[in-house]
């Protein structure tokens, strides 16, 4: 498997972990119903193209996010590759119960390795997304995290709207810092900081991180940048410069958040891998193969591929073919 960073005389590269959120964050916002076999096809192709951490779906209320119904079928049908971590998002104890029943039903081949829980930096977003304030969501999540840890399941955390909230405007970064700390203190191994609206730029991302880092170790943070204003790659690089070593990305730039009107998908996986080429960082994933995966899923969804790099690679391939 080729790695996106090529070796140079510069020596050892700093490994960056990429969490591929396309099958969950990407697909959850799609309007058309996506059959489970397409979701499975996407996850399997991502794994074969070198994605090493894949968020495969979510166990949320199908009334709130219909597109994620059927996650149980998806995770029990996918080809779970050794060396790849598969996670699902859960909002509450009911979601965790679904995960635990699946694990109990498949003791020899657990379909899921870990879960992710989520809250927000503002009450307005938390209520829109999960029907409870941030304080109430943290109480609920503390129970979920403890139960998961008791069963030996690792838990990742998300904080949404770390820069701007679509309902209450500019976010107080101290709130991001404190909510992040609560998630880490309750046992999340890592917290992913979500610029849900994609309004951040490298300056605001750096400012936000400097406040969050007052109370949280950088090695337990991840960056999750939506690309609404085209800043996803720049913000990812700013996060790496601040010491973050895990980035969430979405193949083909799929997605958006159902509770962040107008926000586009996460920064495209292909764009981040291209930005890391020949840099001080290395990340897993075969860029050429991932470009194919991005076009494969975009075609199935009848949508444009949002990755600038994928489009440029396709254009280069067409030029090369024309020369033959
Ligand atoms: C949290 C709730 C459930 C509260 O929703 P609620 O309506 O307050 O919950 P409830 O307990 O009153 O239950 C309502 C119904 O949902 C069912 N239900 C309840 N829980 C579950 C469950 N786990 N799985 C399946 N069904 C569930 C429950 O059984 C009941 O069914 P009924 O009796 O009416 O038939 C709801 O608000 C919800 O599901 N929200 C999820 C919203 C969501 O998925 N948002 C997108 C993910 S977060 C995100 O994208 C941001 C992130 C992470 O990517 C980072 C970033 O970019 O910012």
From TrEMBL:
Keywords: Lyase, Metal-binding. The lineage of its organism: Eukaryota, Fungi, Dikarya, Basidiomycota, Agaricomycotina. The keyword Lyase applies. Its EC number is 4.1.3.4. Pathway: Metabolic intermediate metabolism; (S)-3-hydroxy-3-methylglutaryl-CoA degradation; acetoacetate from (S)-3-hydroxy-3-methylglutaryl-CoA: step 1/1. It holds the Pfam family HMGL-like. It comes from Russula ochroleuca. GO terms for biological process: ketone body biosynthetic process; L-leucine catabolic process. It comes from the Eukaryota. This is hydroxymethylglutaryl-CoA lyase. It is an enzyme of class 4 (lyase). Signal peptide: none annotated. It catalyses: (3S)-3-hydroxy-3-methylglutaryl-CoA = acetoacetate + acetyl-CoA. Residues 16-291 form the Pyruvate carboxyltransferase domain. Belongs to the HMG-CoA lyase family. GO terms for molecular function: hydroxymethylglutaryl-CoA lyase activity; metal ion binding. PANTHER family: HYDROXYMETHYLGLUTARYL-COA LYASE (PTHR42738:SF7).
